[in-house]
Amino acid sequence: MSTYSVCFCYRRKFRLGTAEPPSEVRELFERYSESGAMGAEQLQRFLVEVQGEEGSTREDAQAVIDSVLREHKHLVALFPKRGGGLLGIDAFFRYLSGEANPPLSPSLGVHQDMTAPLSHYFIYTGHNSYLTGNQLSSDCSDVPIIKALKRGVRVIELDMWPNSTKDNVDILHGRTLTTPVEMIRCLRSIKEHAFSASPYPVVITLEDHLTPDLQAKVAEMVTQTFGNMLFYPKSDSREEFPSPEELKMRVILSTKPPKEYLESKSMKDKGNGSQKETEGDEEAWGKEVPDIKAELDDEDKNGHDGSEHHNDEEDLEDGDQTSNQIVAPEYTRLITIHAGKPKGGLREALRVDPNKVRRLSLSEQELVKASMSYSKEIVRFTQKNMLRIYPKGTRFNSSNYNPLIGWMHGAQMVAFNMQGSGRSLWCMHGKFRANGGCGYVKKPDFLLKPDENGEVFDPKAEQLVKKTLKVKVYMGDGWHLDFRHTHFDMYSPPDFYTRVGIAGVPADTIMKKTKTIEDNWTPVWNEEFIFSLTVPELALLRIEVHEYDMSEKDDFGGQTCLPVSELRTGIRAVPLHDRKGEKYKSVKLLMRFELV
């Protein structure tokens, strides 16, 4: 029983209902059980026929039963005369809604081919990885780098600048009020935590604002810090990148080969825009029907293009810099992934050299503009070369953008501000839950090679529906354990509803919602939604719970995002996460998935 005070005059009491099996779960239990009990043989049939776990054996089913009864010992006594080892309806429900029944298989692990070139993978990529908060005045630290690596991020960006005495190297966001952190501290933290979440390679992308003598010092720091962990090529160019498998437990560098140091007045101005960024994240992803422009402008509702404010030294074309160059050879030889933008415009930048691979960087709005005229050329470029997309310079609050436009064009490094929050970042988290969370997800074949007619995939072309995803939302539970009883409403239990939808190519992107269940900590919806998918390989299932508030903005009740390609069919317990992407201890939804 929970009590709520109203106007200091009287108290309202609400019974705290316990989670009970939905009617469909009861029906399935009756169908697969005998005399109100389910043994290993019956559970095995359920796992195969309903859950789609075709390889399940009787021993697997018995292990499930034993695990459930060990965790809930009071349920064993329900069948004392039958020797235990059987599930009643309550134990069966506990299994379905428990941690042992997640929507993604915990045993699947890294299951994709990891021997292809790096360009064949989407890579978990950070932007300005050293920032603790906003882009203008937050502290620079190794702490967000450590957090990113522990989450599985594989690409760390460091902006290198001379320190105040010009004799050492600091990491900071140049020409802002951000406080610097020493580069050596960042490098040591990367070494310590690089492989805490994944054994696959860490790429350090360097934005270089150094003199040749400091570049030489960086080379010394890098080689001494990483030692044998550091991989660098034996020749200046290669026809294809090495594979993640080949680079296991290695660290590699990616940057533009050094040129003569340019004083700040001759370099492009960075991040000094005057228009304030808003947090338009909620509405931009919140349409009930697809809004392509809103999807591209996620977290940015002010309409400011921001194209004149770039975040990347690579925006300077190779021919823009002084021809009489001074270089640090020790530094140059350590670069594995060479970056740069050739002189001659975008068409030249997207030209594929059969004898050499490289990395190109584009801002988010440059990609949008390029995709209007060069969509297929971008896909062709990314089949062999690397493409990095980064946030525009006016995202002062460290917001992010819709990552799908990059992924559908084959961009491997869709760089995000990992210290933020919002729907874009939730999608990034969801994307890299695939392939065991190792930070590398193999691109689908249509992005890697031409079709049977020799045509490159065209992201703008209309596609036929390939798959249909059916999603049923049964119920939710756990909020009363993770939140105080007045968190959502001072005067009554919460009024929850669930939003379910797809983040994918524009034709697939949509959001739908359940009805609102009033005054209930354990809402039961029993609603089904159907999604037609033209490119299921890139689709992400978005799930959010909100609490309806008549007078104010609806409260947040949890979220998750899951790769459709790895969803387990059947009835699953779906844990929810907070705004930052941290999993709640108890909050979850009971859902059913069917992909046909």
UniProtKB/TrEMBL annotation:
Renumbered residue ranges of the record's region Disordered: 234-323
EC number(s) per entry: 3.1.4.11
UniProt KW keywords: Cell membrane, Hydrolase, Lipid degradation, Lipid metabolism, Membrane, Transducer
UniProt cross-references to SUPFAM superfamilies, sorted A to Z: C2 domain (Calcium/lipid-binding domain, CaLB) (SSF49562), EF-hand (SSF47473), PLC-like phosphodiesterases (SSF51695)
Ranges of Basic and acidic residues composition bias in the record: 235-249, 257-271, 284-312
Identification of the protein by name: Phosphoinositide phospholipase C
Location of the C2 domain: 449-578
Reaction catalysis annotation: a 1,2-diacyl-sn-glycero-3-phospho-(1D-myo-inositol-4,5-bisphosphate) + H2O = 1D-myo-inositol 1,4,5-trisphosphate + a 1,2-diacyl-sn-glycerol + H(+)
Species this chain originates from: Acorus gramineus
Compartments in which it is found: Cell membrane
GO CC entries: plasma membrane
Listed GO biological process terms: lipid catabolic process; phosphatidylinositol-mediated signaling; release of sequestered calcium ion into cytosol; response to stress
One annotated GO molecular function: phosphatidylinositol-4,5-bisphosphate phospholipase C activity
Residue span(s) of domain PI-PLC Y-box: 361-447
Membrane topology, from the record: Peripheral membrane protein
